[in-house]
């Protein structure tokens, strides 16, 4: 119960930051006010605030209160587990997804080394081409554990897989490990992306985990280098 209550406060504050109710460098309601609004303990409120601070959204100033952090705007934000759809909508970007490949595979030794899924497991392999403002600038090479995402279809993948998992299947996604590199484009990049003469792509390898620690997704996102921005907040 306590876990759901602090997440309720977390989502309430985050939504008010995203919609502009709580503005950058302004103070949010005090711990006592939030405690009374949600009828919870101060520790529950602090847990939500600490989580938002670790996300780089809030900063506590001793004796003054908790303030919304001022962010440097970016075109497309990578970090956390924000989906392409969520990031595009948040940044008011015109976006589109197409799917040239949607297939079922059995993990062999080669796929095991690439994805870390156990040999013999059944997985979905999906290639999604992401358009932003009518330019194909991102290629997502997705691998999902089939038993976790059972019921996934191409039409769902064109919209939002995470929305399907969280809202339709009630699956709790814990987080992801990301590995970032910059490399020359491969043949798939040349085939599917509007490279516009760019001779490098930024590659984000993403290992995503459920609340119970299960690896359920491996994705390689190939970004046209001039459209790639990585933003992260490091807390000391």
From TrEMBL:
Keywords, in A-Z order: DNA-binding, Repressor, Transcription, Transcription regulation
Organism lineage string: Bacteria, Fusobacteriati, Fusobacteriota, Fusobacteriia, Fusobacteriales
InterPro entries named among the record's database cross-references: Bact_HTH_transcr_reg, Chorismate_lyase_/UTRA_dom_sf, TreR, Tscrpt_reg_HTH_GntR, UTRA, WH-like_DNA-bd_sf, WH_DNA-bd_sf
Residue ranges constituting the HTH gntR-type domain according to the UniProt record: 3-71
BP GO annotations: negative regulation of DNA-templated transcription
GO molecular function terms listed in the Swiss-Prot or TrEMBL record: DNA binding; DNA-binding transcription factor activity
Descriptive protein name: Trehalose operon repressor
Record-linked SUPFAM superfamilies: Chorismate lyase-like, Winged helix' DNA-binding domain
Source species, domain of life: Bacteria
């Amino acid at each position: 119960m306590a876990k759901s209550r602090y997440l309720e406060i977390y989502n309430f504050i985050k939504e008010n930051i995203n919609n502009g109710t709580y503005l950058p460098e302004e103070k949010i309601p005090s711990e006592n006010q939030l405690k009374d609004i949600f009828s919870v303990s101060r520790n529950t409120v602090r847990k939500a605030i600490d989580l938002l601070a670790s996300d780089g959204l809030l900063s506590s100033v001793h004796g003054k209160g908790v303030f919304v952090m001022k962010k440097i705007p970016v075109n497309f934000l990578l970090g956390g587990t924000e989906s392409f759809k969520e990031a595009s909508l948040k940044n008011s970007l015109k976006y589109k997804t197409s799917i040239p490949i949607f297939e079922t595979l059995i993990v062999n030794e080669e796929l095991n080394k690439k994805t870390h899924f156990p040999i013999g497991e059944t997985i979905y392999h999906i290639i999604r081409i992401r358009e932003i403002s009518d330019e194909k600038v991102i290629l997502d090479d997705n691998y999902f554990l089939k038993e976790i995402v059972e019921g996934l279809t191409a039409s769902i993948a064109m919209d939002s897989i995470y929305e399907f998992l969280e809202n339709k299947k009630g699956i709790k996604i814990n987080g992801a490990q990301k590995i970032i590199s910059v490399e020359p484009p491969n043949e798939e990049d040349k085939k599917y992306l509007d490279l516009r003469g760019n001779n490098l792509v930024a590659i984000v390898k993403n290992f995503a985990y459920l609340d119970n620690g299960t690896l359920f997704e491996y994705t390689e996102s190939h970004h046209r280098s001039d459209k790639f921005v990585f933003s992260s907040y490091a807390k000391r």
